[in-house]
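Request: Give me one sample?
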Amino acid sequence: MSFASAYALISQNDVNANYTQYDARNLAVQTVEEGRQLSDGGILQTLTSGRSYNAFGEVTSETNALGATVNYRYNNAGKMTRTENPTVLAVLENGAELWIRPAQDYYYDASGRMVAMRDANVTDPNAVNYAANGTQTLGASKAYGTGNLTRMTLLAGTGYGGSEAVVLQEIHADGGVKNYGYDVHGDKRKITDEIGRVSTMIYDKQGRVTQNNQAGGLINYYAYDGLGQQIKHWNNFLTTYNFVTGTLVPDVETTDYDTQGRIISQRSFGGDLTTTSYTWDSSIAAVGGIVTGGWSQVTSYYYGSVATGRTLTEKTDVYGRATYKNDLGSNITTYAYDIAGRMTAATTNGRATKYTYFNTGQLARIYKLSSSSETVIPAQYAQPIGTITHNYNTGVDYAYDKLGQRLSEVGSKITTSFASTATVVAFRGWSSNTQTSTTQEGKNQSASYDALGRLTNWAEVGTTNAPAASIAYQYDAVGNIRHTTSTNPVLSAKGAVTSNKTENYWFRFDSMNRLVTDRGILSGTAGAVGTTVVRNHISTLGEDILYNAAGERVAVLTTTSQYTGNGYMAPPTAVVYYENRESYYYDDGGRLSHIFLTKGAGLTASFNTITGPSLPSVPLPSAFIPPKSATDYQRSIFGYDLMGRQISQNDYEADGRKVAYDRTASYNAKSQLISDDVSTKRGNDTFRSVTSYDYDGTADNASQYALGQATSVSSVNYKNQNDGDAPDTLTTNTYYWRDGAVQATIKHNPD
């Protein structure tokens, strides 16, 4: 582009300026963006953001275009000790609402290395962390020394001169401790998690990982070329025995590169090969249609080392933007950009999706074009008097606030109609031969946010195809969702809206921000001392969740109910609520291995045929939560191979001894499921299904290989070990080809 052309682009009336103001120290204090579009047809806005500094040039505040301010505090060494966020509404565990400025605090050792931090959350349900006098315009500040504390122990001699400190130990807010071990070169050799599981690493002389010993027993090995690029990966599980040498030979993933470091070949576990070639194409156009040249990349897929005939061609301009794609099914997509580098159209097989933008760079509308025509024949005429052509612009319009947060998404259809003759214009009563109308179509959604950018309200107005719905969110001080209120339609069997249902849920989190009460209620009056979020003990939706120090769920507490009455066909007179505890156990690889169930004591509540069940006379909190006991029964057992693939599952009946469901599975080296053997007990009968999966991959039939998707699934079925008492089945799948295999048809033969 010539200088004259470039100057012409910036010297027009529709060009909006950005400018930055500096203080006497040449520090930027304000940025102004003029005449910004935030919605279609909306008033142009000026976006102003600013910074302030202390005497040492450290940023003490940042104010965004909506006026929300973040403040920073420093110690005498210039280390940031506190970040105080804009005023937002925080809801405590007891339901109290406080206007606060959430703050994070940072702590350093004598040499200036950060060794601890406290989050913004309220550790005391009575809110001594924050004063209660905060307002919507000026939130209360957090008291120092409060918030959940995370500490680190650092390796001596590290973290100086701009280098990163080496962490030896993390001490979490819940007391969990994670340890790291290093060698004399600073390479991480050992990781011990919060419950004692150990992983180790081995390095070469260049500090590259060559062996990773995982806690579950899997060992990964790596090899590199002279440039440090990983060229091989294998493990101790995918191996075959060589009878000649008497050794185990590993299945090896390999990667090859060209002289520019681009991947040109990859062999995955199981042997499938993918190759990529790169060619310079001088005809590729960049932004604005200017021809600059670019790269054409062709990716070819193989079954083993035999070509499948599936190739993906992609072209990019000199800026790395995609301009062309010919996918695995020969569907061609081209991309167009404006002079700002924004995509304006993506056209696939002649069908275009178009994009327009506001001058902020935000997406204004996504739309597709179509057309139809009609012949106009008035009743009093035997012959047509002309035609009307309708051009449709169907899409979604977007609007934003000053920070670029999306405020609305509204679907619409813009119809432009053209009459071919003046007779048609007169007959239709038009003022001209062109008429334009806009109708709302599809979604009509709006959203709002707080000063930290968290979604506070979302609503769908509702259309003939999408009923009205809404949800409101409230958060704790660190951004966990504390409370939701939603209104949703209740649909009939035919999809018609019969009524609206309001759902009100509360959530509680631990010091690690893990959800511990899901879809609960307040135990008392919001804001009162002693009130907290508890599970709704007459709802089967609520859960209490317990974790171990490694963050794994070790138990889930739920409620089940059983109705009692006056006999057969009589309405119930009472309901008994039982507290159930599912306990979870994990293997050394962190995979779920066992589930046990304990059933607690029951509480009885009356039942009214009009108003439904009442609350128990004694509330059901912790006293009735059953601890894991010696009388619990085994519900499920899971088994895995070293690569973490599930190979077995047993589910048990209520006595914990009789197997109700038994499954074993096997995989090939590509991790494709090749067989599934499932037995299920139903009443006094046992049904077994042995399923085989075919991926249509052979060297002589590579073109039929669906790149890992099953093409046929056949099952041999048994009833009480008799094959003849249960029909065998065959399922055949076909696929469309896009960027990969996409399901096209499923044909099931039940016998």
Q: What stands out?
A: The longest helix spans residues 3-10. Residues 187 and 224 are 17 Å apart (CA to CA). Residues 618-624 have pLDDT under 50 and may be disordered. The two ends are 69 Å apart (CA to CA).
